[in-house]
DNA sequence: ATGAAAGCGCTAACAT
DNA sequence: ATGTTAGCGCTTTCAT
């Protein structure tokens, strides 16, 4: 698709040339005034500034970038714009990046590897200085090109397949272990796990934590109690239904993210399961609505914004030219006990 | 802040020149092959494509844009990245824009007018082809510059001060009217409104709808029942507390957005107010968690993604060069009755 | 301290 | 059908 009138569409904007002419100086002087790279006499500086003001002149970033200048743009790619965990991370990233004078460009893949790819190549063409990535569940082919493209990359929450980069993540193993241990101490024994999709690092780690807590309490693991869902609300509901349809339904469930928890809760309500009497629930992520749910939700809270802030700082370090080995920062989760699980009448 | 080693940082990337040399053709031929503007002989085309592949060449968008080419980037600015209503709108925008081959660059102001300003000038420098804007509550000074900058702009949800542009919005007047009328039909008479901040168009319209419904039922409006809050969770809680502290607290409340509703609900729970027996609640926006709240929430649902889609289409029209007068598209809201209001024992 | 001029990577007008 | 070249708006030597 081409624009209909490419020529006419050109907006008449002030350029460095028009400013120079109006101020009666050379373009170099204007550039110097604006970038502050070199001293300019007070009189000329004044004149230039005045004209810039009057013409509402704004240097063209493309032209600037072209001349080999510093790139001040950071790409951030997340799989889902509507997942509050992810937007929370972005919020943290931005707080730090903005402070450091970088612009953030946000892309999201919506679960389509080709979109992630499109954003990747787009950001490259746009000259992004660095990349913060919450990897989607592709086969890693996406990242092959990224490896060749030598800009700093930091991954958040999940390990990108086939890419050796810095990683910031919560300790999902410990989170799952704590949650299940808490449920056990409440008297629940038949405990299920609604986990993320197969293939994610988070998914593996949570499963490991779940196993550990069970084995610690000498409770055998039942395959039917571990379900792989899709991080989405509908998936959570489907998983819960599947569990409740079992000949021997679980007494408690640990759900692997915020949206799936919402779905699971809804499904339980529909079937008139009483929580926490008939079924205890612990969810991952403490969301603004967690306390207002029916019943108020016990959660494993991740330090969401901190994940983003740390990721941004790691990137800034690399951007500053620090060469150090690839690093993993693992932040601790926190159990927040509310009303969705309680003493089980075992 | 300057990068420490600007020179060394330049990533060695294939350019059109290196491709041309490697393929033994001129740069013009490479350009022609890649843009498809002109026919190129099969043999050369083959050769070029092969080299492009091998060198993993990616045309530099900045250089392209600089040459007066079409701009394919659309800026989207929202006040709050963490408000699911807003991310829902962006989702709708993107669906359409992506289809049309545009890239979306997302910025958010976080309630700071200077950040909105920064994004505006940034997008301008970056050469954005158009802008979709959910205005923040500034004094309109931000948009003065925007008016001079002659690119298409579409506003969503709120009327930007001092800017005459296309607008897409829900019928907030009708939404508020319906909600209050429903509460009245349920037997509630003392009905409060937790509204948005003063100065927003939405705020005015909802107040008008609220007034209309009351006057229709011949219920006098009480000033103390109308509270201006801030669209955030804490604000909603504070407003609810203020209402419940009144000598004569309301029997029902209409809350002006999703996050404030969460806060209001939490505050009511803390004070052990029974809903809907003691207090009926209707909230704006149907969110994924609305049905799982305690109690399930009656809401005025906005066609969130549709708002975004329509906005994107309006922008695409203008981008295609269609000149038509400024237009307002007002979409209908929908009342969804759940359990947070019910027959009131009047 | 200031100006002239080269050149960033690319496309398009002009040659051939 | 292909190559040569000018120039997009800017920064940055290199002169002066």
- Gap between N and C termini of chain A: 66 Å
> Mind telling me the CATH superfamily name of the largest domain in chain A?
Response regulator
Strand order of the largest sheet of chain A: 2-1-3-4-5-11
Sheet with the most strands of chain A? 6 strands, parallel
Rough shape of chain A? elongated
> How many DSSP H or I helices of chain A?
13
Most extensive chain interface and residues per partner: A-B, 70 and 71 residues
Describe the structure.
2 copies of one chain form a homodimer. Chain A is of the alpha/beta class and 346 residues long. Chain A has 3 domains: 5-59, Orthogonal Bundle (434 Repressor (Amino-terminal Domain)); 71-169 and 305-331, Rossmann fold; 172-303, Response regulator (Rossmann fold). Helices cover 43% and strands 15% of the residues of chain A. In chain A, the strands form 2 sheets. Chain A has a 6-stranded parallel sheet, sandwiched between helices. In chain A, strand 1 (73-78), helix 6 (84-99) and strand 2 (103-108) form a beta-alpha-beta unit. In chain A, helix 9 (172-185) packs parallel to helix 10 (201-216). The model of chain A is unreliable at 1-11 (pLDDT under 50). At the A-B interface, helix 5, helix 6, strand 2, helix 7 and helix 12 of A face helix 1, helix 5, helix 6, strand 2 and helix 7 of B. Chain A binds a DNA duplex (16 and 16 nucleotides) through helix 3 and helix 5.
Give a summary of the structure in a few sentences.
By secondary structure, the first copy, chain A, is α/β, with parallel strands linked by helices. Chain A is 43% helix and 15% strand. In chain A, α3 (27-35) crosses α4, α6 (84-99) crosses α13 and α11 packs across α12 (258-270).
